[in-house]
What does this fold into?
Amino acid sequence: MGRFLFLLLGLAALLFPPAARGAAPDASVPRPVEVHFISGEGCPHCAKARPFLADLAARHPGVTVHEIEIWKHRDNRPHARALAQRWGIELESVPVILVGARWWVGFAEEPIGREIAQAVSDCLAQGCPEPVAAAPAAAAAGGSTAIAIPLLGTIDLGARSLLASTVLIAFVDGFNACSLWVLTLLLAVTLHTGSRGKVVVIGLTFLTVTSGVYALFIAGLFGVMSVLSFADGLRVLMALIALLFAVVNVKDYFFYGRGLSFSIPDASKPGLYRRMRAVTAAGRSFPALVGATIVLSASASLVEFACTAGFPVLWTQLLAQHQATGWQFAGLLLVYMLIYQADELMIFGVAVWTLRAMRVEEQHGRVLKLASGMLMLALGLVMLFAPDAMDHLAGALAVFGAAAVATVVVLGVQRLLGGRWTPASR
It folds into this structure.
């Protein structure tokens, strides 16, 4: 009996060796991989990510893509937020793609698409690690370009160039021929009083009121863009508006003030002159001086809107496209206004220090119109044909660089032609 038992045990050992009974699963067998894709209907980056993920699932049978649309189907938002919290991130924009312990906000073939494909391959071969909730700044699995900025939150300069775009657009917007003309003319009128104190009061009041009105105007635009959300129809409309501003501004370089022009109309200038004289006449009373300057600043801001509306429209549309939160918008608006006012603050500082005013002549206005027109042209074309180009720092810099090169080329051609061709005055 004992021999028979040993014989059975020997046969069992041959038929079922220990390695076979206790071995890990065959590494050649792919593990199931779940990809969570949080999207919004009308989001252009979601539209590009969707076929990419579908192709990834088709090529790897073990991959399942779960799409959660949250713009049209608001009842999906609690589930999407719960998923985001599981990965330790705030759900502030779409698309969000979750694989294993990694996550990405936004989408582009390079580098995000390549990184997602690699993460899926690793999961298929080795299994997916469980996500570990962490602070958003520490869990930035989508790349190493994420930075945490007070008020702005975490911004990935590689995939979300909102900060870089804000700085560049505000810088060009600040060199606005209309606002610079009003400020320098006001300072010139005020300096005739010979009082540095009056120059300080009038200048600071003027800059504060005009920047406040401009900030309110931009905030209203952002509210409208956020309510409408970002869709292809709105994107095309904003691109066409940008191209209109571009064509008119470039036209003003060659034919200044002729036909349609986004400049202060001649009919409005006498009223501005009267208000400037009223400011200097009210100099004996401090409250009257401040009050007259506020009235002048508010009326000048309303007159200047035709000159300044182009860049705020483009910028707020860009923020709405990226689903910027209220706090992000507030912080970026602060950055925008500081950079926008930098040139005027410099002119004001020089006037206070030297008691001499700089003047913006017609030729200066032409060059500013040309530069802003070229940038609007570049932004409008990119928005129309390559809306994701501004999502990366390199793309944003390339757009602004192309506009700068085009401006320099036009100015260079004019200089080479010399007296044979000059832009026409009205």
